Amino acid sequence: MITPDTKDWTWVLERSCDDCGLDTPAVVREDVPGMVRANAAEWQRLLADDPAELRRRPQPDVWSTLEYACHVRDVFRLFDRRLVLMLTEEAPAFANWDQDATAVAERYAEQDPATVSADLAAAAEQLARSFAGVSGEQWQRTGLRSDGARFTVDSFSHYLIHDPVHHLYDVTGVRL
Fold first, then answer.
1. Fewer CB within a 10 Å sphere, N or C end of the chain?
2. How far apart are CA 166 and CA 148, in angstroms?
3. Is 5 exposed, middle or buried (0-12, 13-18, 19+ CB in 10 A)?
């Protein structure tokens, strides 16, 4: 059983992550598209492993590599939708997303690794293109998470990139 993550991860906008090593505040927003693509390439490399091994949880309360990859794919999809909202609406409020409920409902552990790999790559490319298209005043457009956290497109890019980088660390133990 996975214990739901209820932490407020917005602190990564203020300091580097002691776990994964990413200095999120130092990330250059224009570098985010390349970072998303590089992260996706690493997930694709990992997902080429033995499917049985990809489904193995290191501990009962820790996601498997496949489950983490499904989550990262869905994060890329969700953040792309939210970015589009921020660029096309005035201060949109984002619907709540329960990542743990999604993992159960979508049966992450049972998904096909090859399909997840292809879908993750496609989602990453779409998100990278969306961020690459942001310019000028668009970086200051805002959006609100359901818990009240307020983001600009700029802070949103920083917040986003920590998630897949951190989860790659969760799986590999390799810090940036």
1. N
2. 23
3. exposed
Task: Give residue 148's identity as a one-letter amino acid code.
Answer: G
The C-alpha atoms of residue 87 and residue 84 are separated, in whole angstroms, by 5
Contact 165, 80 (CB under 8 A): no
Structure tokens at 114: 């090859």
Tokens representing 134 are 């942001």
pTM higher than the cut 0.90: yes
* Closest to 38 (Cα-Cα) out of 170, 171, 139, 161: 161
Read off the tokens for 15. 């300091």
Instruction: Give the type of residue at 52.
Output: A
pLDDT tens-digit profile of 36-87? 999 999 999 999 999 999 999 999 999 999 999 999 999 999 999 999 999 9
Instruction: Annotate 76-93 with b (16+ C-beta within 10 A) or e (fewer).
Output: bbbbbebbebbeeeeebe
- pLDDT tens digits, one per residue of 94-139: 999 999 999 999 999 999 999 999 999 999 999 999 999 999 999 9
Q: Report how far residue 48's alpha carbon sits from residue 58's, in angstroms, rounded to the nearest whole number.
A: 18
